[in-house]
Amino acid sequence: MADHTSSASAKPIKPIVVSDEDLGIAAPAAACTASITTASFATAPEPEPKPGSAEDFAQQRRSASGQVLPKDQKASDIPISCGMLLSATEHSITLQAIGSWAIGLLFLYALVFLAPGFGGVYFGLELFSWIDLSKMGLFLSICGVFLGSISFATGIAALLLSLKCFRFTFGRPVVQPIVFNRKTRQVHIWHQDAGAGIFSNLLRPFKPWPMVLETYPWNCIEAEGIASLQAGGNTVRAGYDLVLWVKDSPSSAPHELQGMFKLGQGHNEHTARGLWEYVRRYMDSNGPPLSPGDVPATLPSAKEAATASMIYAAMLSIVLFGWMWISHGKVSLDLWWQFSRNPLDGGAVFAVLNFLYAMCIPALIGHYLGHLLAPHPKPPEALYKDAGQPIDLQKLVKPAA
């Protein structure tokens, strides 16, 4: 899923941005005016940010330990798109906002939440049916009501989480692009507004998730690398999130924000810096849409979702401790040998591994069905306004020097 949250005091737009000159309003040159448009191209102005709003959420997310990557300084010697380049035109590049590798994992989560959901509701109702004040007394009756209420509420919460995971699996477009237009000096983000997280709008399970087009001035974007710890294999490695913050103005304080969004997932510091350098050079230094040795994105179709590479991605997202039988080639054989000699020695670990392998089966089914049933909304024309003619990416692919 794109992990980005943003909002702004949007002016009426048609279809995206109406300039201050068109409205007869003299705005300061340094101000960063953002616009947000839903799929119906209707927008409502929000006069003041409120506690809990996207602006407030972005300000809370900004890490004091992050490392700002200035636009006037080189972030890396090797600019790279990290396989995120969807398309290019004369004046713009389009990057994939979120990956589709976790679709199978979300489907598995949906199935996992179903059992405690139905079980909690059933057990809660059963407890309520057993309560008999004349036979149980006041204390036991109160205990029964208390436990039944907790069980019922927990079951409802689990069912709501399961429903949201199902919606994430089958109701989200695979392609949610970010367009960097160096002619207009704007950044367009077209994404599905499903809330700020898995728990947002949980009590409104059927609330529509509209496609939203957000437009920000490039000069108000500030990149920051934020280090994190990620589990993989039998080790813990340092991860690196590339976060783009949208400031109120180029000279605003770090926490005076309109919103934020991420570029890609699963980076290390090298790839995150290379990706930012790729975008920075394209927007500010007339860099190429594709650097030598770089390759464009390859989004799977419904049939391609079942190929070996996509199966690898789906299984990798399921096995919580990494691709064990690849990174540790003999792990299964070694554990089987230990189990045959002493079941108490290696048997428990071997059973856990096989359980994790078995979980890959429903994940693979969900991964395939998620790509097959994913909606394909038509991008708004304003997304590529003044972008120029499209460029054949295959003609741009060149071997590394």
List the helices and strands and how they pair.
Layout: E1 4-6, H1 20-23, E2 35-38, H2 54-61, E3 67-69, E4 85-89, E5 92-96, H3 103-130, H4 133-170, E6 177-181, E7 186-192, E8 211-217, E9 221-232, E10 235-247, E11 257-262, H5 269-284, H6 308-318, H7 324-327, H8 331-341, H9 343-373, E12 390-391
Antiparallel strand pairs: 1-11, 2-8, 3-9, 4-5, 4-12, 5-6, 6-7, 7-8, 9-10, 10-11
Helix pairs in contact: 3-4, 3-9, 6-9, 8-9
Description:
Helix 8 runs antiparallel to helix 9. Strands 2-8-7-6-5-4-12 form a 7-stranded antiparallel beta sheet. It contains 9 helices and 12 strands. The longest helix has 38 residues. Strand 4 and strand 5 form a beta hairpin. With 401 residues, it is an alpha+beta fold.
Task: List the main descriptive attributes of the protein structure presented here.
401 residues; alpha+beta; 7-stranded antiparallel sheet; 5-stranded antiparallel sheet; disordered N terminus
Characterize the overall form.
elongated
Strand order of the largest sheet: 2-8-7-6-5-4-12
Report the total helices.
9
Overall average residue pLDDT = 74
Span from first to last CA?
A: 34 Å
Oligomeric composition of the shown chains: single chain
Radius of gyration: 25 Å
Class of secondary structure makeup: alpha+beta
Provide the low-confidence segments as ranges. 1-30, 40-47, 317-347
Total strands: 12
Task: State the helicity in percent bands.
Answer: 25-40%
SSE order, as H and E? EHEHEEEHHEEEEEEHHHHHE
How large a portion of the residues is in β-strands, by DSSP E?
A: 15-25%
Q: Largest beta sheet, briefly? A: 7 strands, antiparallel
